[in-house]
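Backbone geometry:
***
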Amino acid sequence: MFSNTRTLRIEWGDCDPAGIVFYPRYFAMFDTSTTYMMERAIGMPKFDYLKAYSFLGHPIVETRAIFRVPSRYGDEVTIETAVVACGRSSMKIEHRLAKAGVLAVEGFETRVFVARDPADPERIKSQPIPPGIAARFAQGAA
C-alpha cells in the first residue's frame, strides 16, 4: 500500500515541563503526516483535492497509539505513514515514528471520506473513495 516518510525536529512547543513530547502532540504530527501522504498520493495540495473531488475531508473516526521511547526537544525523528487498508469510504493508516532508527511511537487511524449530506446540508455523510485515489493507495509508493 502507499506510504510516505518525512523527517522533522521536535520543537520546544511539542514538549511538557519534563522536556519530553506531550503525548497529544504526536497525534498532531500524525495528522500532518497523513495530509502529506494524501497530497503525495493524489498529486495536489489538500485544499485543491478537496475541491477537485467535492468532499469535505477525511476525518478520524478511530485512533490510538503505542508509546515506546520518549522523544525530547531537538530530537530529529522520521515518521513513516502508510495506508494499510482501504474500504469503500474508509481507510486505515499506520504511523511509525522513529528516533535514531529506533521505533519510538506507533500510531493508528481510521479515516472516512465525507461530503455534505444531500438530505441535510448541516450534516456530513461518508462517500466512496474516488477509484483513482483508491488505486493509488493500492499501488504503493513509487
